[in-house]
From TrEMBL, chains A, B:
SMART domains, per database record: HTH_LACI (SM00354)
Alphabetized PANTHER family for the sequence: LACI-RELATED TRANSCRIPTIONAL REPRESSOR, RIBOSE OPERON REPRESSOR
Official protein name in the record: LacI family DNA-binding transcriptional regulator
Organism for this UniProt entry: Photobacterium pectinilyticum
Keywords for the protein's UniProt record, in alphabetical order: DNA-binding, Repressor, Transcription, Transcription regulation
Protein's UniProt keywords contain Repressor: yes
Length: 335, 335
DNA sequence: CTGAAAGCGCTTACAG
DNA sequence: CTGAAAGCGCTTACAG
């Protein structure tokens, strides 16, 4: 039955190295006092036997797993794969590993989330995804810290590392006004999000302070196909906006596609557009979209730092970290 | 220091339920014989105390972790996020969880992969990414089964669930010939892959049997920006191909962008194109790309089944599972 | 069906 | 600096 090769243990290494099992254990714990000779003998034996300390046994005594639960994006949003790599690597660098928590489980929703907690994750990273309240409450019950990455879920109270959406909104308004736009609109999807609200707030406040106007707030869908009709309706109006700040690049691209192919509009002559995210498609030949680039690298580093800090210090102070965002100009803004 | 709430254990539950700790343990193991009354008392107590069996303690005795290492894609390829969800859910359904293995670690490459093995993953799923040989060898040393998902790495011997690339190649050739194409080309990136080879083989063999011709094999880069020059060079030729089968949709789109904007070519009148993957962008208004859709849902299910089968049965027979692929026609093929 | 007890592979006071 | 021993929270023969 169990043909599985019997794993080598610290005792095996101890025997070969001629030391006690305790000593072997100490060699693999940073900061333990072990003589240089003992250390060498143990390393040699460990290498010969291909020994790896058993993390499960360790966590049983230390009561920490060095495992972080990762709630990850629900959508195919192109930027997210890289983000996951960044987070995973950053955790790894700090001696932690990421366990995936599927955010949505069709059937046995009740059943599956707790499963993850059988692994006693030390913390949870909610990576730019909606995460359900069951998970949130579970974490609170077990006093497991959560950090939200790149977005903030309504009604939750946890630390977060997000882009400075408010400033992005201000910059977008200022830039568009500078380039001669007269009727500004904010184009967004249908999923309420704190980041979105902030962006609109910055956009609105800056526009008001500059011109006294209030931008139009147009809501449609985040899915390309589903956004099309909403956009059509707006562009069909006699006095449609001449400048759009879009909450995702995909939305901006849907807008460009329709504006050009169905309304014969030129960009940026007839309408100007600014996106958000800088997905790979933003720089495709047919788009050359001016958009905000989020600093995911920094975001990942900071989010991990935030989380591990809470994990290690038991300090549950809430911090909301805002990372600056950069407007990369391509060809959808007038000069 | 350790303010961490002391987790509740099986003994706590046993005390409250008025049974032995063994009985509590049995209640949470499927197939153990426990009386209905005992079971109920334990469930009640467990619920009241919010008890979760400790997976680490379990795996220490059972010698299985119910953890699967997941090597995941290096690229921003849009299709992959969904794939990850599918794999993760499928594992979860079977009582397993996925731990991420960052495929590439800049500095301490040697050091980090073994770290993962401190968690004694029961198996490894290599999800459409290149995975390095260090990991491969590590798995072999520890007798940990690997299944490759959606691609096959050169020089490795493990089971895999992939799309039927060979047939896709044949279908592409047949379709293109049927639609009047005369000079067929296969456009691909610069990373050698078994799946790619198979696709070209099917494409070539079918074309030869149909017309006696051999398709041109054009290699450029998988990255949009880097592919542009190679594509330009081909289209600048006097007698460039009039039909392209592209190994990714991104490549197909780069081709379309250049053909139309720089060479004034119409699609599908002047050139016909077929992509591979059916990424969301393939159905954007400006592209309407005819392309092959991989059945990722089925692929994920089968790959997980394959892997867990190896994990649970110690059966290390190599199986290469091929899932049919579907050509979805849009507007880049003549009628 | 059930309980007492050994054991999984570590860490960590406790002595020395 | 080092070893013997207890203990982490489970599972699993072994008796009953």
């Amino acid at each position: 039955m169990s043909v599985k090769k019997q794993p080598v243990t610290a005792s095996d290494v101890a025997r070969l190295a001629g030391v006690s099992q305790s000593t072997v254990s100490r060699v693999f714990i940073d900061g333990s006092s072990v003589s240089a000779t003992a250390r060498e003998k143990v390393f040699a034996a460990a290498k010969e036997l291909n020994y790896r300390p058993n993390a499960f046994a360790r966590s049983l005594t230390t009561n920490e797993s060095r495992l972080i639960g990762l709630v990850f994006p629900d959508s195919d949003y192109p930027i997210h794969m890289e983000t996951l790599q960044l987070l995973s690597k950053e955790l790894q660098k700090n001696g932690y590993s990421a366990v995936l928590i599927p955010w949505e489980l069709d059937d046995q929703q009740q059943h599956s989330i707790p499963n993850i907690f059988q692994y006693r994750v030390d913390g949870v990273m909610a990576a730019s995804a909606q995460f359900n309240t069951a998970l949130y409450e579970e974490c609170r019950d077990f006093n497991i810290p959560i950090v939200q990455f790149a977005r903030i879920e309504e009604g939750t109270k946890c630390s977060s590392a997000i882009s400075d959406n408010y400033s992005a909104g201000k910059i977008a308004a200022r830039t568009l006004v500078q380039r001669g736009a007269e009727q500004l609109a904010y184009l967004t999807g249908n999923i309420p999000a704190y980041t979105n609200t902030e962006r609109l707030e910055g956009f609105t406040e800056e526009l008001q302070s500059l011109t006294g106007q209030t931008p139009r707030d147009i809501q449609t869908s985040y899915v390309y196909e589903e956004a099309l009709d909403g956009i059509r309706a707006v562009l069909a109006e006699d006095h449609h906006p001449d400048a759009f700040f879009c909450s995702t690049d995909t939305l901006a691209i849907a807008l460009m596609d329709i504006a050009r192919s169905e309304f014969g509009l030129s960009i940026p002559e007839d309408i100007q557009v600014i996106g958000f995210d800088d997905i790979p498609q933003a720089s495709w030949l047919g788009y050359q979209l001016s958009t905000f680039k989020q600093d995911f690298n920094r975001l990942a580093k900071e989010a991990v730092k935030l989380l591990l800090n809470q994990v290690q210090s038991e300090d549950r102070a809430l911090v909301k970290l805002m990372i600056p965002v950069e407007l990369v100009e391509r060809n959808t803004l007038r000069k």
